[in-house]
Amino acid sequence: APISAWPGDLAILKSEIPRQEGFELSIVIPTFNERENIVPLIERLRAALVGIAWEVIFVDDDSSDKTVDVVRSLSLTDRRIRGIRRIHRRGLAGACLEGILSTSAPIVAVMDADLQHDETRLVAMLAMMRSNRTDLVVATRYGGEGSSSEGFTGVRQVGSQMAIRIARRLLRIETSDPMSGFFMVKRALIDELAPKLSQQGFKILLDIIASSPVPLKIGEISYVFRPRIHGESKLDALVVFEYLGLLVAKWSGDIISSRMLLFGLVGLSGVVVHLTILRLLLLGGLEFPVSQAAAMLAAVVSNYTFNNALTYRDRRRRGVRFLTGLMLFSAFCSIGVLAGTGVSSLFYSREPQWWLAGLAGAVIGAGWNYITSSMITWRR
Ligand code: GDD
Ligand code: MN
User: Fold this and answer.
1) How confident is the model over 83-110, as a mean pLDDT?
2) Tell me, what's the ipTM?
3) Residue 57: what are its φ and ψ, rounded to 5°?
4) For ligand 1, is residue 200 a contact (CB within 6 Å)?
5) What's the 342 CA to ligand 1 centre distance in angstroms?
6) Do β-strands 54-60 and 81-85 pair in parallel, antiparallel, or remain unpaired?
7) pTM metric for this prediction
8) What is the mean pLDDT of residues 120-141?
9) What is the CA(361)–ligand 1 centre distance, in A?
10) How many helices (H) and strands (E) does the chain have?
11) What are phi and psi of 346, to 5 degrees?
């Protein structure tokens, strides 16, 4: 169709274009430092996908091990292989999205580069997509013959299952593995949803399902999650936090902002500041009430600064208002400090445990802090 739309004097080129088949299936593979895995992965894809018109698109976030160079050297002799190099960007979801939007194949699969996903299941997934009874096929570790115990440590397994349970509860998502990084989908669906999808973190599948205006027809194929041999996992605390943030936001219908989450986190950081300073001052030989009051004040200033920059950044107090805000905040908090010091000193006199007493004081301070901050210091 695009060829017939060319201006007349270019129409001659039409006959010079050799007839070639398009790709039915495009496999999009996000990579970040996966150099060692590329060649074995391509070999496995070639073996698994005989008879299928497939291509593979690697989307690399400028890996320091030059993963994309390996991809490019392979693509010189096999035009089914393509590499996209992104710079100054990080994000599994965004990389997948970019790969999906760069292909014309009607069906796309997303899969990890590290050989943890069983590429032989692609054939069954494609058959299910071809049957046209599904918009999306999830390769699951938690249904049928699937399993995750080989590829995950005990902690990751428990964490993964908890994340899934929360997702299904909160968002009523009807798939056994909404956290899967291995799935197949109609490209047209992603074209439609793309503007709504988040670029951050690992939660692309969950995001696709949760963002679709109509319930999707979801199929499942089980597989055994393999252990990683080369390289290491990129799932870290930030990825987990982003996941929780998405769940809370979607669950509340995007009403509960991340403000509460942030306030809690800032509060926790304040506890760390508080306890650290308290411990140091006590070790330095200061009296307990003095140490406690100083530690609380330090936590107050630190909390004010972080809350102003993060939690209430949309109502941020600058210049003189920053200072008056700090005065307001500390004024309210000094009442909290008094109460907190009282409570923790009482605690300490009965049970001389620095951390228990300090914690009791911090909890009193934090509660007071929250109420006065939201209602007075950063009121709209
Ligand atoms: N381009 C790009 N950018 N790729 C990335 C990034 C990034 O910031 N972070 C990770 N990747 C790539 C990795 O190179 C790998 O190919 C794939 O994404 C998965 O990353 P891993 O770091 O191996 O993830 P995992 O094995 O810990 O997590 C698996 O299980 C999760 C659910 O428990 C993956 O399948 C996840 O997709 C899945 O959510
Ligand atoms: Mn992995």
Assistant:
1) 94
2) 0.96
3) -120, 115
4) no
5) 49
6) parallel
7) 0.70
8) 95
9) 41
10) 13, 7
11) -60, -45
